[in-house]
């Protein structure tokens, strides 16, 4: 290659795959089998360095704690830990309502899982604790097994327990199973499973969850008293209960909620606009909570206005699988954002292990499902948090509330917690703004978003997630089965080939078609490709040509067709013109003294559809696998394995680049004559 300014000049032979292989020897790599991997692992199991690496992988704290910069990081972690801890206390209390549990149990969720994550987690900025969507999913299980009205489910261990104790037992049990699922997935190294939850699917799911949360908090904001509803159409039944009982609204709860929401929204907007000038965000949730507690206690809201307050603080499943997936997916997505921002890596499998152990440990101490909350993590990062030291300090703040000052929160009206929950839904509800962008740029993702949202809204979050995942996989199948194929053309004066519809200055030799296949080739899309490839049925044309040849032979034998100065036709009369056997075999001109040009006028009563191409180039550069095996192997290897090549279809028809193929065609067919072998290739492809 010789560079010349912004041009380059390459002088090399015209290669086919065969000639390229002759000049450039290829290294034969042995593929690792499961047996070889097992032997390799056994051989290396006693390696001391590998043991140390395994310990560092299992306990990431070993890796970063020894590099902890006390002078530069400690102050930021302290400020961040205090700020995040105050918010964690309030969110723990508020999200307990979503889980249909007494508020105090949310404090356990903000403490125990965070301590375990400090040792096992790989993210330095994630704030572990209650997450509204997971809390709502836990609440759905709790209210189904221990409903507000009616007897609880017949479960061993419920005997002699109050309703509150039964609900705590259910929440802890489902959290333990959720953690077990996460732990098993981490041990099986299936952290990649989160990749199947696309950003579009998660957006539609979390938006529907936000609507669920908003509706579930209406009874606290309005001060209404009716049993919780779960299952399909729960949101419809809940709204029906709200509107049928709306005349019983507690005015004190409603006014308090409106004032709280207005103040928090205004101050949060100020925090967003002036975040570069404020040393730390204004802790408005903490401020309004302290004020609300004081006012409620001073004016005795509980007795004077019949306001439901937090009350006495606590001293010291099938549904679990979707919870495990959702909790991990949200936490991993948030962690990945901050790891990219601060230039460090996170391990998806280790995160599964960390959350699995955290949830199992927390469930043993009566906490419910833990993940992360976006707003809480944002506070931990924006206030100067550098490591999980901030997470531990926030957990210590929660511990102080649990063991020492929790009684000060007992007069807090539950409507205040409901209002804080609703205000924190702003970010998720604003995801509706994505719809116009998706509609304009990607209709398939738009459909995935809408289907996931509607299914999650009306069928419940667990079934909605399954439906959304099914819809997403269906769109992937459709995109693979019906990809956007294109005909390529040479950009004049270059060796570059692009879609012929996108450019004006192109070169297309007559009779040459370059067809780009943009996806794997397998059983579901081979017919689609065949139809798109040539626009006609190659086998049908082949049969008509062979049938026409039989007629020509018969006419020559019977003297109905005369050709002078040529060899005599074969006298073999065993071929029956009406027989259908052999019509799908390659064209055989034996017994005919001429080469038939199928695009010219043929003898009477002989009609064959014309084929206006003499050379067909298939661009396999985007094909990752062939046939149903779905193995990502080299195309040439796979074609050899499938016995694609024979005496007529040779490896020499393959070329390393499109330009090599085009130059070969122009060299062999300068007059754009007809090429029968290419037609045979088309017929062979149609049989795949």
UniProtKB/TrEMBL annotation:
Q: How does it sit in the membrane?
A: Multi-pass membrane protein
| Membrane-spanning residues | 74-99, 105-121, 128-147, 167-188, 200-222, 242-266, 278-300, 320-340, 352-369, 389-409, 416-434, 446-474
- Domain STAS, by residue range, is 502-635
- Report a single Gene Ontology molecular function: secondary active sulfate transmembrane transporter activity
Q: Major location, coarse class?
A: membrane
What Pfam families does the database record attribute to this sequence?
Answer: STAS, Sulfate_transp
Keyword NAD carried by entry: no
User: Has keyword Transmembrane?
Assistant: yes
* Key words, A-Z: Membrane, Transmembrane, Transmembrane helix
Please give the GO cellular component terms listed in this UniProt entry: membrane
Q: Which NCBIfam families does this one have? A: sulP (TIGR00815)
Annotated protein name in UniProt: Solute carrier family 26 member 3
Highest lineage ranks of the organism? Eukaryota, Metazoa, Chordata, Craniata, Vertebrata
């Amino acid at each position: 290659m010789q560079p010349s300014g912004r041009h380059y000049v390459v002088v090399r032979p015209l290669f086919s795959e065969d000639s390229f292989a002759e000049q450039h020897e290829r290294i034969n790599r042995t593929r690792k089998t499961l047996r070889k991997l097992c032997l390799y692992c056994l051989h290396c199991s006693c390696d001391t360095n590998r043991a140390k690496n395994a310990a560092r992988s299992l306990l990431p704290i070993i890796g970063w704690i020894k590099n902890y910069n006390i002078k530069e990081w400690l102050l930021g972690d302290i400020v961040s830990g205090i700020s995040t801890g105050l918010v964690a206390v309030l969110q723990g209390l508020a999200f307990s309502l979503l889980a249909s549990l007494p508020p105090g149990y949310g404090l356990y969720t903000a403490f125990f899982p965070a301590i375990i994550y400090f040792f096992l987690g790989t993210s330095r900025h994630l704030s572990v604790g209650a997450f509204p969507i997971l809390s709502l999913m836990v609440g759905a299980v709790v209210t189904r097994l221990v409903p507000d009205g009616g007897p609880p489910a017949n479960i061993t261990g419920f005997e002699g327990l109050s309703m509150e104790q039964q609900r705590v037992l259910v929440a802890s049990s489902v959290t333990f199973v959720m953690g077990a699922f996460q732990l098993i997935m981490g041990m099986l190294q299936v952290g990649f499973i989160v990749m199947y939850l696309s950003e579009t699917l998660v957006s539609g799911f979390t938006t529907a969850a936000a609507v669920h949360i908003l509706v579930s908090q209406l009874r606290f904001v309005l001060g209404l008293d009716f049993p919780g509803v779960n299952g399909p159409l729960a949101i419809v039944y809940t709204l029906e209960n709200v509107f049928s009982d709306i005349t019983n609204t507690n005015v004190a709860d409603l006014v308090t909620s409106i004032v709280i929401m207005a103040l928090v929204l205004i101050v949060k907007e100020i925090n967003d606009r002036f975040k570069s000038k404020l040393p730390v965000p204004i802790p408005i949730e903490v401020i309004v909570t302290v004020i609300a507690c004081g006012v409620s206690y001073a004016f005795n809201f509980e007795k004077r206005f019949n306001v439901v307050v937090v009350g006495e603080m606590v001293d010291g499943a099938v549904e679990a699988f979707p919870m495990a997936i959702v909790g991990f997916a949200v936490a991993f997505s948030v962690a990945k954002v901050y790891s990219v921002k601060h230039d460090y890596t996170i391990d998806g499998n280790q995160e599964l292990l960390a959350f699995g152990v955290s949830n199992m440990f927390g469930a043993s101490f009566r906490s419910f499902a833990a993940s992360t909350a976006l707003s809480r993590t944002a506070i931990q990062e924006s206030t100067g948090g550098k490591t999980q030291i901030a997470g531990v300090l926030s957990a210590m703040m929660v511990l102080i509330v649990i063991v020492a000052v929790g009684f000060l929160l007992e007069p807090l009206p539950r409507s205040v917690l409901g209002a804080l929950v609703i205000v924190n839904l702003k970010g998720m509800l604003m995801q509706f703004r994505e719809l116009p962008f998706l509609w304009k740029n990607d209709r398939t993702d738009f459909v995935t978003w809408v289907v996931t949202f509607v299914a999650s809204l009306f069928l419940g979050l667990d079934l909605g997630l399954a439906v959304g995942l099914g819809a997403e996989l269906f769109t992937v199948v459709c995109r693979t089965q019906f990809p956007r194929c294109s005909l390529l053309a040479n950009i004049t004066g270059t060796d570059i080939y692009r879609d012929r519809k996108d450019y004006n200055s192109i070169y297309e030799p007559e009779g040459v078609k370059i067809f780009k296949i943009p996806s794997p080739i397998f059983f579901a899309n081979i017919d689609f490709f065949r139809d798109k490839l040539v626009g006609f049925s190659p086998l049908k044309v082949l049969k008509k040509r062979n049938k026409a040849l039989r007629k020509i032979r018969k006419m020559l034998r019977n003297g109905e067709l005369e050709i002078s100065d040529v060899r005599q036709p074969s006298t073999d009369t065993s071929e029956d013109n009406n027989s259908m056997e052999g019509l799908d075999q390659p064209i055989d001109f034996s017994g005919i003294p001429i080469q038939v040009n199928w695009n010219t006028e043929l003898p009477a009563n002989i009609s064959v559809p014309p084929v206006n191409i003499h050379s067909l180039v298939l661009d396999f550069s985007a094909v990752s696998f062939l046939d149903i095996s779905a193995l990502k192997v080299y195309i040439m290897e796979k074609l050899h394995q499938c016995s694609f090549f024979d005496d007529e279809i040779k490896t020499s028809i393959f070329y390393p680049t499109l330009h090599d193929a085009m130059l070969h065609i122009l060299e062999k067919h300068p007059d754009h004559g007809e090429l029968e072998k290419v037609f045979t290739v088309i017929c062979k492809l149609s049989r795949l």
